[in-house]
Write a structure and sequence with these properties.
335 residues; alpha+beta; BirA Bifunctional Protein, domain 2; 2 domains; seven-stranded mixed sheet; 9 strands; rod-shaped; binds 3,4-dihydroxyphenylalanine
């Protein structure tokens, strides 16, 4: 299968053309195999040299080897060029202008209720209270019975709620955590329980079906209303940044005895701020603790419940509670 110089030339031209038109390195590799691989025409020519006459062998052998070397160099050059081209393209794709001014990320901010909750927690923590949580889905026992509100007691009307198919209800206050906490912890104790509460009632500027309460509880040996007054005055002072005038009004809550409402002087008017009272003996009993005895022993303490929305409305001069949950950015962005 002797080849003439003509056919080697043809091969050379064909190979050159294909090498020059290779699009990328993968392409080039295929072309390499076609022209310099084991099965290539050139390899076959080189293999068949041994069958030729000495003279032809010398001539064709020289030409075939020259072609082989030529192609090798050509491939090396083409590979280098293609590699450079690929790198340039990659650079172009990845390039970006570091001098272009950036886009400013819009940073969020805390909801007013969160701000007020955090401040409240901070103030009570500074007075030795722990922040405790409880379930939003509550058992009837903890939300009502254990707090001295038996079935059919008219006080349940005040706390109408959503009863769930699983037998639980949405808690109407965080007061049930009093019981849950006292079941597991012995006095002396000081806790506050901030949390979401629910009521089944019509909404208006001061009522929502969803709101936040902070329950407070302090129990010890001789804890009295005087202690409560000192604590709550200190809370208002720190929360509003100045001493606030307050007054106690008799009131009724089944879980305290006596019970009262705390009013605060604000713009020359008395504003109702929270409910409170001395923990009812039945509440202690339901939590498994002995209540205070006239002849010694047992525990006593105070409890209170304050609405975070009420605090936020006063602090930020908001007149409609519904604004807190409306999701209106015109309102929220002011905080
Ligand atoms: N749980 C009451 C409410 O839902 C608030 C409250 C009033 C809590 C008096 C108390 C309390 O601990 O003593 O409105």
């Amino acid at each position: 299968m002797a080849k003439t110089k003509g056919s080697l030339n043809l091969l050379k031209n064909k190979a050159k053309k294909e090498i020059d038109s290779a699009k990328d390195l993968k392409d080039l590799d295929l072309i390499y195999k076609t022209y310099l691989g084991d099965e290539s025409e050139l390899a076959q020519i080189l293999r068949s040299l041994k069958d030729l006459s000495k003279k032809k062998k010398a001539k064709i052998g020289k030409e075939a080897n020259e072609l082989k070397n030529f192609l090798k160099i050509k491939f090396t050059e083409a590979a280098a060029a293609l590699k450079e081209k690929a790198e340039k393209e990659k650079e172009m794709k990845e390039w970006f202008d570091i001098t272009v001014p950036g886009k400013k990320a819009v940073s969020g901010h805390l909801h007013p209720i969160t701000l007020v909750r955090r401040k409240t927690e901070e103030v009570f923590q500074s007075m030795g209270f722990s922040v405790i949580e409880g379930p939003e889905m509550e058992e009837e026992w903890y939300n009502f019975d254990a707090l001295n509100i038996p079935k059919n007691h008219p006080a349940r009307d005040l706390w109408d709620t959503f009863y769930l198919k699983n037998g639980l209800l949405l808690r109407t206050h965080t007061s049930p955590v009093q019981i849950r906490y006292m079941e597991k912890n012995q006095p002396p104790l000081r806790i506050i329980v901030p949390g979401r509460c629910f009521r089944h009632e019509a909404t208006d500027f001061s009522h929502e079906i969803n709101f936040y309460h902070v329950e407070g509880l302090m129990v010890g040996e001789g804890i009295s209303v005087a202690n409560f007054k000192a604590i709550i005055e200190e809370f208002f002072r720190k929360f509003f940044g100045k001493p606030m005038e307050i007054r106690f009004r008799p009131s009724y809550f089944p879980f305290v005895e006596p019970g009262f409402e705390i009013d605060m002087k604000w713009n020359n008017e008395w504003l109702e701020m929270m409910g409170a009272g001395m923990v009812h003996p039945n509440v202690f009993k339901n939590a498994g603790l002995p209540p205070h005895q006239i002849n010694g022993g047992g525990w006593q303490g105070f409890a209170f419940g304050i609405g975070l929305e009420r605090l936020a409305m006063i602090k930020y001069k908001v007149e409609d509670i519904r604004l807190f949950y409306g999701g209106d950015l015109k309102f929220l962005n002011q905080f």
